[in-house]
Design a protein that fits this description.
By secondary structure, the chain is of the alpha+beta class. The chain contains 3 helices and 5 strands; from the N terminus they run αβαββαββ.
C-alpha cells in the first residue's frame, strides 16, 4: 500500500468521523484496556471539538513507555493483524495494551482517549487525545 493510498484512507476516515460525530475512545480504568481497546474509532486526522491530539514525543510522554516502544514517536505504532512479534517495530496487541494502561494510569483524573490516526495494510498509528477543559 503506497503512502498516497494511506493518506487517502486517512482523509476518508476523517470525513466519516466528522460526519458521524465520532470522538476518541475513553478508557477510565487500566484494568479494562484489553476489552475496551478493541473498539477504537478510526478518526483519521480529524480532531473532534473539545479534544487535543497529544504528540507523545513532543511532550516527553514517550519516555514513560517501556523500551520496546520506539522513542521519538508521536503515535503508538501497532500491528493490526495479530501476526506481529515482540522485537518488531510495531507493537503487538499485548504491548499496545500495556502502553495504553501506562498512559491511562499516568493521566488518572484527566480524560484521555485513543483513536486510529492512520493505517496501512498491516499496521496502525494510534493517536492519544486529551479532553480540553470546558470554559
Amino acid at each position: 500500500m503506497g503512502l498516497q493510498t494511506i493518506r487517502d484512507i486517512q482523509t476518508e476516515a476523517a470525513h466519516a468521523a466528522a460526519r458521524r460525530g465520532k470522538f476518541p475512545l475513553v478508557i477510565f480504568n487500566s484494568d479494562t484496556v484489553e476489552d475496551d481497546i478493541k473498539h477504537l474509532p478510526n478518526l483519521g486526522d480529524y480532531e473532534p471539538e473539545g479534544w487535543d491530539l497529544i504528540l507523545l514525543s513532543k511532550e516527553g510522554i514517550d519516555e514513560l513507555l517501556p523500551q520496546w516502544q520506539q522513542r521519538n514517536l508521536d503515535f503508538l505504532f501497532v500491528d493490526k493483524g495479530g501476526w506481529g512479534r515482540e522485537g518488531e517495530a510495531a507493537l503487538t496487541f499485548e504491548q499496545f495494551c500495556k502502553c495504553v494502561a501506562i498512559l491511562v494510569d499516568h493521566f488518572k483524573g484527566k480524560t484521555i482517549g485513543f483513536g486510529i490516526w492512520d493505517e496501512g495494510q498491516f499496521q496502525i498509528n494510534v493517536g492519544v487525545y486529551r479532553k480540553l477543559a470546558v470554559n
